Amino acid sequence: MQFSQTDLYHVYNRGNNQQRIFFRPENFSYFLEKVKKYLLPYCDMIAWCLMPTHFHFLVNADNRTLELKKVAGQERNIFSEGIRNLLSSYTQAINKQNKTTGSLFQQNTKSKSISQGSNLYDRICLHYIHQNPLKANLVRKMEDWEYSSFRGYCGLDIDKLCNKETAIQLLNLDLNNFYEESYRVISDGDIGYIL
């Protein structure tokens, strides 16, 4: 994955063969602890959502994200290594829990730059991430899904992953209108710009 400083990125991956990646409530919590350990030191998290078969992050890249790290004698991007470590350590834990072996996630995590030149697509990506549980019919209201940053933005939870101040500034968010804006339908054409 390649990153540029001050760009927003939609980072996502899914289960290998579209299989489940979260099997129990504690799996979601364990994954989020790994996110804190392996990703938060290297970016500002703007939004996140964990789904039974996949995950989404909206991250703001900065100088920390661009750092390089020597791994097996090669220079590698520190954020990409964080993703690799997150998925590898989580997979090991799930394989142990389920008495399975092999890959849990698809091989390549996707990373799409979301232009900050147009706050429209930045905010569309934020809302798209939060709308995932609703569109998958897992809940009737987004605030009922506890494994996303939506509840934190609505003031229903304290979100320890997201940097809301950075999000408000970068996306020009008005939290007074956030809830209504979050429920607006996103067209397939707009989704094409963020995936």
Give start-end ranges of low-pLDDT stretches.
none
Number of helices: 8
Within the largest sheet, what's the order of strands?
A: 2-3-1-6
The whole-number mean of residue pLDDT values reads 92
CATH superfamily: Transposase IS200-like
Rg over CA atoms: 16 Å
Domain tally? 1
SSE order, as H and E? Answer: EHEEHEEHEHHHHH
Distance between the termini: 15 Å
CATH topology assignment: Alpha-Beta Plaits
What is the global morphology? globular
Largest sheet: 4 strands, antiparallel
CATH class: Alpha Beta
- Structure classification: alpha+beta
Helix content: 40-55%
* Fraction of residues in β-strands: 15-25%
Please tally the β strands and state the result: 6
Shape-level CATH architecture: 2-Layer Sandwich
Which helices and strands, and how do they pair?
Blueprint: E1 8-14, H1 25-38, E2 44-50, E3 54-60, H2 63-66, E4 68-71, E5 74-77, H3 78-98, E6 110-114, H4 119-135, H5 150-153, H6 164-171, H7 178-182, H8 188-194
Antiparallel strand pairs: 1-3, 1-6, 2-3, 4-5
Describe what this molecule looks like in 3D.
This protein has one domain: Alpha-Beta Plaits, CATH 3.30.70. A four-stranded antiparallel β-sheet has the order 2-3-1-6. A two-stranded antiparallel ribbon has the order 4-5. The chain contains eight helices and six strands, in the order E-H-E-E-H-E-E-H-E-H-H-H-H-H. 41% of the residues lie in helices and 17% in strands. Helix 4 (119-135) packs across helix 8. The longest helix is centred in the middle third of the chain and has 21 residues, at 78-98. It has helices at 25-38, 63-66, 78-98, 119-135, 150-153, 164-171, 178-182, 188-194; strands spanning 8-14, 44-50, 54-60, 68-71, 74-77, 110-114. With 195 residues, it is α+β, with helices and mostly antiparallel strands.
